Amino acid sequence: MSFCAVDFGTSNSAIAIPAPVTEGGAAMRLVPLEGEHLTMPTAVFYCTDADDLPPNRWPGPGGDDTLPRCFGRAAVQAYIDGYEGRLMRSMKSVLGTALIDQTTEVGNGQGVRYLDIVTGYLRHLRHQAEALGQQPLSQVVLGRPVYFVDDEPERDAAAQASLEAAARAVGFTDVAFQFEPIAAAFDFEQHCTQEEHVLVADIGGGTSDFSVVRVGPERAQRTQRRDDILANHGIHIAGTDFDRHLSLARIMPLLGLGGFGPSVLGQPPRPVPSRVYFDLTTWHLINTVYQPSRVIELRNMADFYGEPAHHRRLMKVVQDRLGHALVGRAEAAKIAVAAGGATDIDLGLVEAGLHNGLDTQQATEALQADVGRIVACAQDTVKQAGLRGDQLDALYFTGGSTGLNLLTDALQAAFPGARAVRGDRLASVATGLGLYAQRLFKG
């Protein structure tokens, strides 16, 4: 029997297992999950057309092929390629909500509990790891954000309990947890040559987590590190929120958000109802817009729109189920702007020739409230540690959203005396969790 570490992320996931002795030096290694990729998008695509199934599919929840699924990049590609089915992303955001025990339709009238979707994804990770390591895995360290749910301890505890239940259903008998930013600190510590105070900024798809940790080569030899964790804090704002706000700012107005209806009998025009636009930009709510009753309701709202093209475009999105694709366009635009300069958001899938631009200034305006709250959370974390900002030695950035320069620039400006160190944005947490698992289970 052996152990592993799982970074179950909002956007991407990874799993680490003990490295063979022949590899020398490294105690743990990340498992290639798709080809040579050491991380995999946290995505599942349920295939519903038995006569037209995508490649790289796996058996369904019951162990048969009645409802095959694709995972990771294959799941996203199956959706993009137009296969019949249901794409599920950001499953981690459902933990701690009432949805976790509810059933959602995935096609052909078949329903699956959200918790079982999470379980199926973890089972796939475990299967991949056991195939590489050639031995069963019974012990696991799971990463978790500082807060699954902000300011609601009961829901936060329920979220961890649901994730533990999923892990045990997969077959893990010994389940432990470690805060994701603490795991990142362990990864950072591997390269420390002296004792330092580091603020770990782990900003992924669903949460922004911060920890002030005391690290150093001598401290790294200790098994118990509780007294080295000076403070940890987090906020439920991160990459998927950025995508939503960019979509609300640059895509949804072309579908009617912020518009007005026609003037009737001299009365001031009424604003177009906005709920549908917020649902269309929230991953786990998008499919609720496609329910037949909701589609009928939206179709009957044509008179609410002073600009008929807006309603026509909205109905195109709803009828062709383009919600996830539009969020994908917003995410791609965010990444393009993060790489520097401006980009153009191609919305030709909605209407031929439809597009809108996004530049750094527009992205900053759309995201400034979120960025401000994230920076304030980081500053609060340092205060909780009993330190002044100028007493920090380093800022360690990890998590996919730290690729957004306007965010990391704002954090560096808040702590100008600390040097900025960038870890592997997608794998630092998994690497650190692996180090912790090795210490915990191997002793």
Compact summary:
The protein is an alpha+beta fold. The chain has helices at 72-80, 114-133, 153-170, 180-189, 239-250, 275-279, 292-299, 308-319, 323-338, 360-384, 405-414, 428-442; strands at 2-8, 12-18, 28-30, 40-41, 43-47, 69-71, 85-89, 103-107, 110-113, 137-144, 174-179, 196-203, 208-215, 229-235, 343-346, 355-358, 394-398, 419-422. The strands form five sheets. Strands 1, 2, 3, 4, 10 and 11 form a six-stranded mixed beta sheet that branches.
Textual characterization of the structure:
The chain is built from twelve helices and 18 strands. By secondary structure, the chain is α+β, with helices and mostly antiparallel strands. Helix 2 (114-133) packs across helix 3 (153-170), helix 5 (239-250) crosses helix 9 (323-338) and helix 10 runs parallel beside helix 11.
H and E order: EEEEEEHEEEHEHEHEEEHHHHHEEHEHEH
Number of contiguous helices: 12
Kindly provide the radius of gyration, computed on alpha-carbon positions and rounded to a whole number of angstroms: 23 Å
Calculate the terminal CA-CA distance, rounded to whole Å: 15 Å
How helical, in percent, are the residues? Answer: 25-40%
Output the structural class.
alpha+beta
> How many beta-strand runs?
18
Shape: globular
The biggest sheet amounts to: 6 strands, mixed
Low-confidence stretches: none
Mean pLDDT across the residues is: 90
Beta fraction of the residues?
15-25%
